[in-house]
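Handout, section B. The chain below has 269 residues.
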Amino acid sequence: MTVVKTIGTDLRVWMSQTFASWRGDLTGGLTAAVVALPLALAFAVASGVDPKAGLYTAIVAGTIAAVCGGSPVQITRPTGAMAVILVGIPHWNDFGLIRELINPALALAALGSIESLLSAVVADGMTVSEKHDSDRELIGQGLANIVVPFFGGIPATGAIARTAVNVRSGGKTRLSGVIQGVAIAIIVLTLAPLAAQVSLAALAGILMVTSVRMIEWEAIGLLMRATYADFAVMMLTWMVTIFFDLVLAVEVGLIAAGALFIKIQRNTQ
C-alpha cells in the first residue's frame, strides 16, 4: 500500500512538473529513442531471439519502468549483460524446463537489479536535485519484466548509456521515458519496412562498439589499487565467466562478495 500511495503522489507531482520541463523531456526522450532503437535490435539478435522482441521490450518495459520506477530519468532497455545470459537459455515450450530456468532467472534478476540501481546512481550524479528511490526502482523493474513477456519481449534493465543520453539531452522527469517508448512505437508502426532492411552486419558493428564502450577502464584502475580481497573477487568472477558461463559467474561473484562483506564486518566489530 505504501508503494501504491508513493506512486500516486509522484504521478500528481509529475503532472505539475510536466508543463515546466516538457521541452527538455521531449528532446531527451526522442534522442534516447534514436539511440535505443538500433541497440534494441542488436541485443535481441545477440540474445538469440527475433529482432522485433527487442523493440517490443523497449516500448513496453521502457514505458512501465519509466512510470513505476524509482528514478525519474531512467531509461530501461535490453542490455548486453542480459543478452549474454539469454542466449544460453532454452526456449520454454513445456513445464519440464522450469527447473532448468531457475538458475538463469535468478542470475537475470541479480544482474537486472544491480545494473538498474547502478544506472540510477549514475543518473543521480548527473542531476542536481533528483535522487532515486531504490525500493521503488526494483519494484518498477520487476513489474516491467513481469509484463513484457506477454508482449513477446525479453528481460530488460536500466541502461546506463541510454539514461545518460536522456539526461544530457534535457530529460528531467518520467515523461522523457514515456516519450521515448511512444517514439519507438511510432517508428515501429510507420517505418517497420525500413527497420527490416537493417543488416545483421550493421547490428554486429553496433554490438562491437557497445562492447568496447562497456569496459569501465577507470573502475578497473581503481580495482588494481584496491585491496587484494576485492581484486581476488573480480578475478574469480572473470575466470568463471571465461571458462564456464555468466550465470555461474554471477552466483560465484555474489557469494564471494557476500563472504568478503561478512568478514569485513566481523573485523570492524
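Note. The first helix runs from residue 2 to 46. Compare this with the example in section A.
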